Amino acid sequence: MKIGIITEYYYPTLGGVQERVHHFTVAARRFGHDVRILTPAVEDSLASTSEASRSPADVQREDQSFGVVRIGRSIPLIGGGSIARASIGHGLSRRLSEVLRAERFDVLHLHSPLMPTLPLLALRLTENVTVGTFHSASGKKSRLYSIFKRALQRYVNRMDAVVGVSETALDGPRAYFDADYRVIPNGVDVSMFSSGKRRPEFDDGRLNVLHVGRFDPRNGVDRVIRAWVGARRAGADARLLLVGDGPLRRTYEAMVPSDLSHDVRFLGFVPSAERSSYYASGDVLLCPAVGGTFGIILLEAMAAGCAIVAADTPGFRNVMQDRVQGYMVDLAKDPTCASLAARTAQLLTDGRARRDCAAAGRRTAAAFDWPVITERVISLYCELLGRDVAQRTGMP
What we know:
By secondary structure, the protein is an alpha/beta fold. Helices cover 40% and strands 20% of the residues.
């Protein structure tokens, strides 16, 4: 089967969509399918990792080797406590049309399908069997969906199935649009994350509190720092390892008290191939993020054997239960991060509880292994290709 994936979000930026696209592609190819990723080039300073040390020829060779086709240029759209992206460029529609005609995909899979620019263009241009996946929690009251409901319904009508990574991710679309809705969760590379080895520089007998994610306001790096400081002041002896980067880094660095600064490591961007060693070095993952619809970071940490302290959100409840894989904290009731600090300190000082949570997390992660999730997606494709697809509504 030849599969085309269209996404505004792919490396060198980091995030849940990027991880799903990458790991699905790897697993689908192992099943014998031919996959291409159609996505814009990212050249701005808000990329999660810098391409400055690599020549354009190196970047192009890497894209070609992994079947990445760059169409247009990505621009960041900052708002709502996060960074969205959209493609721009002269002849964007013409270029996308040329690629679709040349590749002759059996299935097109669009991520964040109602967001500009490439997904909406693809829905106008394609006659393929088409699947769209929603990742973000727009909620049941969306100003965007409310204003453009009639126009967007025509785009929804051109999708043969609409997938959410969780029920939370489908709350918004279901409230506004008629569609064939399915839930297929994100996955985790259990083999990779469970086989990581503790990094020598962090393997000195001390415990490590870990955070992994973009330095994006909704990911709560400020809360991570406050909670870790609180745990330290309560007597828990542990370093803080911060994997990620972004324009807020200096702000977060300035939050660290001077007497504790020697125990905080701002590690910057870490390539996917190296992340397992950082998870293996973590004893407790601290993830007080808001607005997520799933919990990929939590699953990666669980697969590596970390106990978890996380925000109590609908998205995280898709993969975690309070007092099973760790602790969940209602952030609205914890403005000072005192509860986050207390739960973190509790796991750091209670080795048995930490080990029990880690074991439960490993069992949870196994149910989300990428081969299991990829097989569900491929089964959906086969279902759609094997039936008569209803006449699509014409686009304006």
